[in-house]
Design goal:
alpha+beta, 3-stranded antiparallel sheet, about 35% helix
Length: about 60
């Protein structure tokens, strides 16, 4: 299946608990960390929830 690369661009400090949990579920812990996640509707929803903290890279 296809994958998406997601990079954390902003700190989770000051973010609500649910957004911190979403970043953790995506596997992101540090700024500039890139993870590759499966391209599924659930993952896209998580990325959309924290769109201001992450970016999709190619």
């Amino acid at each position: 299946m296809a994958t998406i690369k997601v990079k954390q661009i902003k700190s989770r400090i000051g973010a609500p608990i649910d957004q911190k949990s979403t970043l953790q579920a995506l596997g992101l812990r540090k700024i500039s960390q890139v993870v590759e996640v499966e391209d599924a509707p659930s993952m896209r929803g998580m990325i959309r929830k924290v769109h201001h903290l992450v970016e999709v890279v190619k």
